[in-house]
């Protein structure tokens, strides 16, 4: 078949044919070389983009090799891990610049344990709050390595420098409803990241005991209250809950195969100073102070939603109690030497409070009225209520929450006003 190009150069006279033909060949040659050139250019640009993406991706996932291979970086890790009490622990805290991670790190350091933090400082919520928490930790002698739990290299490095007795794993993609928007971030952090961290932990010598944050959301659509650890957890209402439930199964296999001591903590809606801006009590406070409306979800048939809101100091006590009673991992060199503990505890407050009551407590402490839009709870992963049975945690780790929502929110509001400068009259 002839191409349209051939038709275009077909000569009208034999004499003209050679010239036309030569021109045609020249034109074709030029076309070919310019097409080749364009393709080559395209490939070069593509390669350059790939290399730049790859290296910037690596920068996000891990510190550059030159940074954590440096003597200075390693010294900071070593110093931070120093134990300053007899029989003290040496703990790797993941998600150390997060809400619970910050408080747990400070409490461990305060009693003389060694603490090394790890955090990727992602922008799920305002990273400046995470930086402020980091500064707080730094000023208390706690170093936070900047890296992701999916980065096996940085994990191998910190385990190489420090013989951790414990891992307190709090890094996660949190938030129940955000899973609709960004499902893969949950799999990335709560499943893939967890496995990478467990791999590093089971290969470490000595193996650390592993305590980690599961979630009350694993109880999903259960209706029997209060929720007990032995209740079914096979009906998650959100992908977030499903990844936390997956984590419970995954940690079980590392306990079974490698002898890692595992404690999973099912946190119930933790709140308090230095909290997470994506949570209701925090965003309600911000909006009330700014005179903006808040959206209050309501269950079917106008039933108020309720949560077993748990104050951060109580959670910290539960975390430390879990670390102290974790029992040893039994494996070494990645091999199990005997059975190790596998535990799961509810860490809640045992007194659920409705969301409208949460709002009225905030109004009281903020001395301002909320503009409320009450809407039916959208089907985006929320559950209507949570309520913890904490008798197992009480018995096994001495867990005993002491802060009611009224008292805890007062402390939160006082921190909020001071942190955001309201007390200095800057923003009022
Ligand atoms: O305990 C848990 O397992 C979970 O607790 C919280 O999840 P959630 O209880 O949904 O906390 P909030 O997002 O602060 O919501 C609290 C209540 O306020 C309601 N809400 C939330 C946001 C909003 O704009 N309006 C509203 O009425 C929610 O429906 C819920 O009943 C955390 O965000 C999760 O990371 C954690 O794992």
UniProtKB/TrEMBL annotation:
Any Gene Ontology CC annotation: Golgi cisterna membrane
Known EC number: 5.1.3.6
Top enzyme category: isomerase
Name of the protein in its database record: UDP-glucuronate 4-epimerase
Keyword entries, A-Z: Isomerase, Membrane, NAD, Transmembrane, Transmembrane helix
Coiled-coil residues: none
Localization of this protein: Golgi apparatus, Golgi stack membrane
Assembly notes: Homodimer.
Family membership: Belongs to the NAD(P)-dependent epimerase/dehydratase family.
Xref: InterPro entries: Epimerase_deHydtase (IPR001509), NAD(P)-bd_dom_sf (IPR036291)
Membrane topology classification: Multi-pass membrane protein
Location of the NAD-dependent epimerase/dehydratase domain: 91-325
Species, as recorded: Rhododendron griersonianum
One MF annotation (Gene Ontology) recorded for this entry: UDP-glucuronate 4-epimerase activity
TM ranges: 36-55
Catalytic activity: UDP-alpha-D-glucuronate = UDP-alpha-D-galacturonate
Major place of residence: Golgi
